[in-house]
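Q&A log
Question type: sequence-to-structure
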Amino acid sequence: MEEAQLFYKLCTLDRFRQMLVNKSIWVSSVLEFNDCMEAMCSYSDADINRQNLSKQSQRLNFEDEVRRELFLDRVESLRQAKRRREYFSDYGALCLTTNITSSTMWGHYADGGRGIAIALTKADDPLVKGLGPYRIRYSDENNVLSSDPTDKEIIDTLCTKSSEWEYEEEWRFLFRGFTNKMGSHYDFFPDNIKQIVFGPRCDSEEAKGIFEYVKVHFPHCEMHMVYPKSNSFRLRLVPVNTRFDLTDIHWMNSKEGDDFI
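Response status: OK
Response body:
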């Protein structure tokens, strides 16, 4: 049987504890993501709208053509923002990655590497009640939506990001029917966590406490930590078999190895 692909959710230690205690996972609204270009797209009728607006703008007194073009751009941006709210405001996404050894990902999404990551799979009995997972497509061009977009067009747009974000190797579960502007909690089943990964700057004592808890309550769950490769900026994934393996996890600020230097 082929091994299931793992999708990692990086988070802070506090957020991880909340997941276990509340058995829920936070799903953010796609309009509240840190990417200011999230769900931005072009529209098939944009050229016609701009031509009509251009004709109407001739009645206004602009000092020069540059100012008139700026006015047209601004109006078109407002129109796109309005459509963006209409089409995407009730969607949320659970963002995951397959790039667990990226120091950039740990820095951005796990409290500067002090946090933790959980590994999920898309099982037959879905881990979360979302659509997907969908692999993010990275591009220098945004999507073009029709004036009455289909569900496929909407999903394709929500799963397309600027190529600047390609390092994230992102996958998404999509959720529909949001009523909270910021996001919502969804039922989450910790039994389905396949793996836990401690960050490179995770506190050793905190990690040991989590190790003991997981061993008792989720014995099926594998545990790993990320550790730097020799003479490299890259991280490597290292198995954690006993709590003593976590002694030197906080390697960036640790002085325990000074005697060997």
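Response note: The longest strand covers residues 91-97.
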